[in-house]
Design goal:
The chain has helices at about 10-15, 25-30, 45-55; strands at about 20, 35-40, 60-70, 70-75, 80, 85-90. It is of the alpha+beta class and about 100 residues long. The protein has one domain (about 10-90): RRM (RNA recognition motif) domain (Alpha-Beta Plaits), CATH 3.30.70.
Length: about 100
Amino acid sequence: MAKAKKIEATEWMYEIISHPHVTEKSTMGSEHGQITFQVPTSATKPRIKLAVETLFGVKVKGVNTMIQKGKTKRFKGVMGKRSDFKKAIITLEAGETIDVGSGV
């Protein structure tokens, strides 16, 4: 039986998993073993999975991503636009958890 190679956390992993995206919908997903993170638009599913597994020490079952288009809003009478961003919904294996509220 071959030993699993230990991967060390590098700087790009911290850039991908910068902060959780906390909304009502994402907290409902946490009941089903899902965690939502806001990631760069250039991040790919395999890199997101590797970063979460390495940084948090959990087993990832699947990664779903979506690009949230920025809304057009009015700021003091001037039209403006929020930035587009990418969300990654990570489904963890049964029994695995990540506490996103710690360190706040």
